[in-house]
Amino acid sequence: xxxxxxxxxxxxxxxxxxxxxxxxxxxxxxxxxxxxxxxxxxxxxxxxxxxxxxxxxxxxxxxxxxxxxxxxxxxxxxxxxxxxxxxxxxxxxxxxxxxxxxxxxxxxxxxxxxxxxxxxxxxxxxxxxxxxxxxxxxxxxxxxxxxxxxxxxxxxxxxxxxxxxxxxxxxxxxxxxxxxxxxxxxxxxxxxxxxxxxxxxxxxxxxxxxxxxxxxxxxxxxxxxxxxxxxxxxxxxxxxxxxxxxxxxxxxxxxxxxxxxxxxxxxxxxxxxxxxxxxxxxxxxxxxxxxxxxxxxxxxxxxxxxxxxxxxxxxxxxxxxxxxxxxxxxxxxxxxxxxxxxxxxxxxxxxxxxxxxxxxxxxxxxxxxxxxxxxxxxxxxxxxxxxxxxxxxxxxxxxxxxxxxxxxxxxxxxxxxxxxxxxxxxxxxxxxxxxxxxxxxxxxxxxxxxxxxxxxxxxxxxxxxxxxxxxxxxxxxxxxxxxxxxxxxxxxxxxxxxxxxxxxxxxxxxxxxxxxxxxxxxxxxxxxxxxxxxxxxxxxxxxxxxxxxxxxxxxxxxxxxxxxxxxxxxxxxxxxxxxxxxxxxxxxxxxxxxxxxxxxxxxxxxxxxxxxxxxxxxxxxxxxxxxxxxxxxxxxxxxxxxxxxxxxxxxxxxxxxxxxxxxxxxxxxxxxxxxxxxxxxxxxxxxxxxxxxxxxxxxxxxxxxxxxxxxxxxxxxxxxxxxxxxxxxxxxxxxxxxxxxxxxxxxxxxxxxxxxxxxxxxxxxxxxxxxxxxxxxxxxxxxxxxxxxxxxxxxxxxxx
Length: 800
Known about the structure:
seven-stranded antiparallel beta sheet, DNA Polymerase, Chain A, domain 1, 21 helices, single chain, Nucleotidyltransferase, domain 5, five-stranded mixed barrel, alpha+beta, 35 strands, 24% strand, 5 domains, CATH 2.40.50.730
């Protein structure tokens, strides 16, 4: 009788008598851990004729490939067999050689030997376990039906040796046991050293309600408790925050020093660390997810991606409701019996935040895993381009399309059209967006890497750039995009049947969001230099049609008597006296009839303010929401005081239409800065260290501050610093905030009671006034006036 299972863990390879055996980590209907072994799948890759190959050759045959020999660790290896098959290459039918080999580890050596024959090698870098998933039509987090015989495996509750494995579609997300962890290390010398400084706390929490702080008088006991906890809880997913780069490498090294094997894999193996920037950690039978990697890719709205900021943004733990400690003070809190209680609460808040972020972020990652046919721990670390590519590779297999080889090429191309904004305040404004502009253009004009032609009888020709795309048959990308759009539209129709708070709604919403994200990434993928299906003509033609249509829309708006205030890529802001919403609807309907695009009303603004630069505006909607785009309040390298004050200025101007009141607000805050009455946290500046300190030619303020830090700052980290009064450049006076123990009345005190005064003039003239003057200057208020001086009229007046 066949067994119905749900695939959960990352597929892997198990060797049996020198033969590679696929190992699938699953769960059965009772929630037991199940393992399926499939010894029947053979590794392979393809090769096709390559007229322009660097090794020029005559026509090659299967016999030529069978004669290939290569050395691997002293062993002579050769193909197992070669099959001649029909495949498609950029839409054209070709004859390909399918080269089956004895072991996945033979592929790298044999691909080089086949390449030397003058053939174009394809799909040799597809991992064996991923190849198995694709070829069998399986999907991570989905069901499988297995025919086979039960076998006994020490580390599994249920195991099968498969004779046949088939996919089974399942609704809903799997009921996974999720565990979060977070380590705290003692750090009396600054940055914790793996060689010197022990782990003092490991916080653990699960989605089954377990929360523990593992702490003991000695580190080996803590590590053993951690191993025992994982064994007892038996999580399917283990999550951390920046854990692949910090917690895991640290934990692995400390365990090695203590001679404790970290047997955390379901088969009793230890985690495997693949070094690099960033690193990757794999655990047999479990899915390891570094949530920082997910947040860094998917939460662009959070500029400074600390654990506390992300938890606050997602609404799972407010910064004001948790314990906040500077990392440099952990050792002090640990060594003081009274303060240690606070440190333990801090550790508890950290691990609870990590678990809550996981519960918010993982459902979308499950959907990405299904669509891309990549395991959760891999897809969570992928960039968007790689996710698209994995999805395309699976779709290509379905229709017999060969995956192109990687090519590191690329060239810049023109982006979207921008109509410069009419700066100043405007009332009664509607913003309209072209829905899915670039995917719609690719579908309408059959834009795909396999439809590009030099000439022909029937083709679409892109405006400005002149690239041609055949009209028939439909290209690879068009077929996929049409299918994705149809699936998303169906999901959106189903959404209307459920209330927002229901599980059904949330599940459908996650699915349609995943489709939307990947669909919108197709255009950019074709212009990505590392893409296998790279084709500059596709990316350049798509943006050219986009520019063409938005210009047509602007012309149509003006013909209808609408004033276009601003246009950018796929959006337009229009205004006119009267019922602007009704007029905007008439305009959008006309455009949707005349162009192969849908133009929708995005928002109505009672009042909106544009600066002189694109993508920088602030508006008040009819619902009372203030929308801010691109102004300094959105940037991460300005202090909180500058951001908050500018936000308050925007609120006063848009909400009360009272620029003079906004000026008084700024003047009041300037006086607070001068008197040292602004909290220190509002003066801290964050800026990312993008490369090694030694690599900077110009030593900027945040680099100088990083040099002075007690804790060495890693590349990619936000440097938190303040500027103090003194001589020299700003960089000469930039210090990491963690070196100070106290702040009072504008003075900062170090551990040795040396004091420095905050440079009030810097914060006023380089932060506060620049952040507000770019708005208030438009209303005739000068920088001098904002700083408390007399009112001076400027020549810059805003529009009507």
